[in-house]
Amino acid sequence: MKKLTILSGAGISAESGIQTFRDGDGLWENHKVTDVASPEGWRRNREMVLEFYNQRRRQLHEVEPNEAHQLLAELEKYFEVQIITQNIDDLHERAGSTNILHIHGELFKSCSSNNKSLIYEQKGDISLGDKAEDGAQLRPFIVWFGEDVPLYQAARDLVKDSDILVVIGTSLQVYPAAGLIHDIKDDCLLIVINPNETGFGYGQRAVVMKEPATKGMKLLFDKLVNLA
What we know:
11 strands; Rossmann fold; 8 helices; Sirtuin_cat_small_dom_sf; alpha/beta; SIR2/SIRT2 'Small Domain'
């Protein structure tokens, strides 16, 4: 089976009702991103950061995968599919995809503030005073701006080995994830689904579909199956 890699971003989850800060004024649910998604924000106000992600977690319980998520899962019948997602939700999993690399972390997990290898399932709220086994405050298992991306090399290896790379719902403005596109092989087919201009100049290299995630996947699905 050909190796099909998906690089997904906030645009695919937005169609399920999950807000993205990149589409508007740089705010994420009326918060400055640096206040809720950076080590500095965590040091300044842990309670606010915890409540911000508690609200995101509660919302995630209420939304469902959309047709784009479902079509990506369906492609596993025809390809060796690997999803690399910048999203912290579990909508790919719930849609039925089985090989998912969350390079920016997972909302339904928490970890020790002192040791991010101490990871726990976290379907409910995190409160001040909730401790990991090392005695440190639990924090969201999220890669914040300014932190290392531990799974980036694994993502690069997957992209390098791909026969087809589909970029969906991402403006390719957040690094290092945006840099993954530079790792494709010369004969890898590159397809980009995004309604807006991206941060990357493709030249003649990419098939670009200026569509939202769901519409783009509906248009692309049969064409991909014919390439299997």
